[in-house]
Amino acid sequence: MLGVSPSMLIKLRAACRHNANGRQGPAYVKLGKSVRYRITDLEAWVENSIVRPATSPARPTRGRPRKTEPSDAVAA
Description:
The chain has a domain at 6-48. The protein is 30% helix and 8% strand. The protein has 2 helices and 2 strands. The protein has helices at residues 6-18, 39-48; strands at 29-31, 34-36. The protein has a two-stranded antiparallel ribbon. Strand 1 (29-31) and strand 2 form a beta hairpin. The longest helix is centred in the N-terminal third of the chain and has 13 residues, at 6-18.
């Protein structure tokens, strides 16, 4: 469902134990020695992991700026 390897999930579980900022991976259920993931927890983790790109300003133009006529020039 997630497209990540079991070893990646193991690394995420280990990181959340050592991370003071909180969880990094999805919530899990420990049943004896087995680790299970609820579908609702996986979906919530995916939703909380969405990164929305910031809008970037227009790209600056390249090269030398153009010479412009003064706005108060009188047409001949």
